[in-house]
């Protein structure tokens, strides 16, 4: 696809690494439960990586370790060349570089859409009112919601609320965007508008890690797909390989389940050996 051919990763920069995100030997336990068991992953500047895998495989925990919403038990995470797992790091400064969008939009219900975008800019970036309002307008426009600037969140559809949440993250000027199942809470007819915004961001060269079950999005937009299971990366590669022709049995089983949930209920003896689900 065209965005793979453009030299998005060759923009000049000061840092030594071409990777926007580097994860080395990352482990995370909750009590006795080790949910990340040695993750090594690099995301180049401008790259879009989709993370897929079964429930409980550690996808959200992985994203949350990147912006330190969870403290890793072992290993290192670098964002933009800065080790965020360094004990002396300024966590707030790190978080300012990383935008995160969750399944739940978490907008403040009692203030307008614009105010939802202005507030974090004022509090975290100490921007003045005029500048913050201008940046809010610009980013609402970016997600196609300029006309909803004065609406309250409850007056918007779920898809519109999620686009506001994306605009709120973008208004902070992040270098990296993390998305954790951004369309999973939406009615199917609202998913497309949110994915369209993400597609535009990807096209603009934003570095993105996206946990998603939207395989068509992964195939179209992701530079790389990572399949996780049981706290490890089982396989990764271009979408056409990982989704289209997975090498690992576990990946095949997972994809069979999500691409055709009814398949498990059907007898499988007529399928060729490579296509056996379960
Ligand atoms: N704060 C926490 N305290 C204790 N256990 C946790 C916590 N957060 C996650 N876990 C456990 O870690 C494991 C991985 O959870 P995680 O949310 O990362 O999985 P996931 O791949 O995102 O799953 P899903 O697809 O359901 O969102 C699960 O067993 C979960 O119960
Ligand atoms: Mg999750």
Automatic annotation (TrEMBL):
Residues 21-255 form the ABC transporter domain. Residues 259-278 are annotated as: Disordered. It is found in: Cell membrane. It is a peripheral membrane protein. Pfam families: ABC_tran. It comes from the Bacteria. Keywords: ATP-binding, Cell membrane, Membrane, Nucleotide-binding, Transport. GO terms for molecular function: ATP binding. PANTHER family: AMINO ACID IMPORT ATP-BINDING PROTEIN (PTHR43166), L-CYSTINE IMPORT ATP-BINDING PROTEIN TCYN (PTHR43166:SF35). This is Amino acid ABC transporter ATP-binding protein. It comes from Streptomyces crystallinus.
């Amino acid at each position: 696809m065209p965005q793979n051919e453009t030299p998005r990763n060759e923009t000049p920069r000061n840092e030594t690494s071409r990777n926007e995100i580097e994860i080395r030997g990352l482990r995370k336990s909750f009590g006795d439960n080790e949910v990340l068991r040695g993750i090594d992953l690099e995301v180049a500047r401008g790259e879009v990586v989709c993370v897929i895998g079964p429930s409980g495989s550690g996808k959200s925990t992985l994203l949350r370790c990147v912006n330190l919403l969870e403290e890793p038990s072992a290993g290192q995470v670098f964002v933009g060349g800065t080790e965020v797992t360094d004990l002396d790091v300024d966590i707030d400064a790190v978080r300012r570089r990383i935008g995160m969008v969750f399944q739940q939009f978490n907008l403040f219900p009692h203030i307008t859409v614009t105010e939802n975008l202005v507030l974090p800019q004022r509090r975290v970036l100490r921007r003045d009112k005029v500048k913050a309002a201008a940046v809010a307008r610009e980013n609402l426009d970016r997600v196609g919601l300029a006309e909803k600037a004065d609406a309250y969140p409850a007056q918007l559809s779920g898809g519109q609320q999620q686009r506001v949440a994306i605009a709120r993250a973008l208004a902070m000027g992040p270098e990296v965007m993390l998305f954790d199942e951004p369309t999973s809470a939406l009615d199917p007819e609202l998913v497309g508008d949110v994915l369209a915004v993400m597609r535009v961001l990807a096209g603009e060269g934003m570095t993105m890690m996206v946990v998603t079950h939207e395989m068509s999005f992964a195939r179209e937009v992701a530079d790389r797909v990572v399949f996780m299971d049981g706290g490890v990366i089982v396989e990764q590669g271009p979408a056409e390989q990982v989704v289209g022709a997975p090498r690992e049995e576990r990946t095949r089983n997972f994809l069979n389940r999500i691409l055709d949930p009814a398949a498990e209920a059907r007898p499988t003896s007529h399928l060729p050996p490579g296509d056996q689900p379960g």
